[in-house]
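pipeline: protein-struct stage 2 | run 1193 | YheC/YheD family protein
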Amino acid sequence: MTDQKNRLGIMVCYGNNQKHPPFKEHTFFEQLTLEGKKQGLEVFIFNPGRIHWKTRTVPAWHYHNQRWKQQTVPLPYLIYDRCYYVNARHYMKYKPHVQKITQDPQIRLLGRALGGKYQTYLILKEHPEIRTYLPETKRLTHAQELFSFLRKHNRVLIKPNGGSHGRGVVAIEQIPPSSFLLKGRTKFNRPFSVQFQTLVQLSHWVEQTIRDTRYILQPLLSLNTPDGRPFDVRILVQKNGQKRWETTGHAIRTGQPDSITSNLHGGGQALPFQPFLKQHYTPQEAAKISSTINYLSEIVPPFIESRHGPLVELGIDIGIDENKDVWIIEVNSKPGRSVFLKTGELEVRRRAIQFPIQYANALLNS
């Protein structure tokens, strides 16, 4: 493994598009490459579906002299999983390739990807204190489950179990006596709103929606600013060069006034955390919210890791409702970093790039 001591492979599941380079997050990967160079680590980006297993080599992209170039390299020992799946079909296409990597005794992953939202909920629910910050979550496998949930909560939220960026997230509200208002984003991340007059219409829509995609059900919480914009807190927690968890930063994401999500990909904005708290809460309320969020940042990562296996980083999305109660909305093992660039917090952004490289070096040299 001596020739692998200074290599990190980044795994991405891109298609046959004609872009150069053919994958997303290339700006992030460029920054990782430059940081790797400072710390003596070569960084390559590769597609797991293109590995030549007989020779244990793979065509990979390398950023050098401000240009992306492709070359065939030995399959790296240490791999950083940044595969995103746009739908179930995309996931199933890459599943055997990714599984082969995860089961290979000559390969080590920087962190193992979490399962879907429901699987992560079941892990978190095991912790007696974390459990109190979780909204009730159920699988949605047929329309009757939605109707039962609606009778209990009146306003519900459905979202893809494996989705991201707010795609496919829909709020459903019962309008007396018998109609239903739906508002959200399509699977292509376009906003939509529709009203059904009967249970039959809603049932048909639900069955069509969940036919090819696994969905979960949650109560629709009131997670809005006083002027009606949806918002959440993104916490980035990462392993550092000492192999310990460290909170890299916090940021606020706000959505459009007529939206139900605060994702930046859905037209949202990014704001610094502390100024936002000062603007919308009393000093006592802000202190209590900060204390709770810091507490969750400390206990959630090691607990998930103890049940799930090795992790490198987590994005924890926190909601704050109209009663100032804090909720864990989602935990993501492949978090983005653009929110910290948009808030202008360059030091946080810098650390967000340094930590994976420092952690990779710590693993390679241990």
